[in-house]
Amino acid sequence: MIARIGVNMAEEFDYASLLNRAKIACPETIENHERFEIPEPEVLQEGKITVLRNFIDITDKLRRDPQHLLQFLLKELGAPGNVEGRRAVFKAKISAQSINDKIQMYTETYVICSECGLPDTKISREDRTLVLECEACGARRPITVRKSVRADTANTLREGDIIELTITDVGKKGDGVGKFYDYLVVVPGTIKGSNIHAKITKISAKTAFAVPTTEAATR
Ligand SMILES: [Zn+2]
Question: Residue 39 C-alpha to ligand 1 middle, in angstroms?
Fold first, then answer.
């Protein structure tokens, strides 16, 4: 009996048994190794409102901040919405299929390790880059978000748009010039270093002409 206690004490400081105990202390991780299935989205349409009833069940399973997934969905679906209790409510008519597709896209981008395919990951930040760290295999990869069509059109200027602009330069004719995405925006009557709202009056390829305005930015 005494001898057995001695063995147990030796085991206690053995690295493998310490590791084993650490694993037992987080059973959730082990469970995920065995089976990872995102709960199927339960989607209800109520007039012009769409309710994702088991939203929190999904974020629990993904082990992600509900607000993080919500903001992703709102941007991708182009609809306003919020979390109410355990549900997410979108103020637009959205099909169950699109919600499901976007959750899959989120999972591939922000949850699944591309090395081992397991979901036991966490997001960390290195300088300005988000990194997905795998707790199962130790792999690390930068998170690259696939640009949606919506994001691309967001960078396209149209006449009548009102933008916030910093005048960073002065053109040949003395007009203030600023950058908006890949546009050069020329605003007469402005000075270098000023932050203004500018209304786009004319666009020629990647050069836009604008006038200062006090109106609120539309972009
Ligand atoms: Zn991995």
Answer: 22
Per-residue model confidence (pLDDT) at position 137: 96
> 52 lies in which domain range?
38-111
For the chain, the domain total comes to 3
186 CA distance to ligand 1 middle (Å): 49
| Mean pLDDT of all residues in 164-176 | 93
CB 70 within 8 A of CB 82: yes
Lowest mean pLDDT among 15-29, 85-99, 122-136, 159-173: 15-29
Residues 67 and 95 reside in one and the same domain: yes
Strands, sheet with 140-142, edge to edge from the N-terminal-most edge strand: 121-126, 129-134, 140-142
Q: Residue 151's pLDDT band (boundaries 50, 70, 90)?
A: very low
Spatial separation of the C-alpha atoms in residues 124 and 145, rounded to whole Å: 15
**Ligand 1 centre distance from Cα of residue 107 (Å):** 14
**76 alpha carbon – ligand 1 mean position (Å):** 26
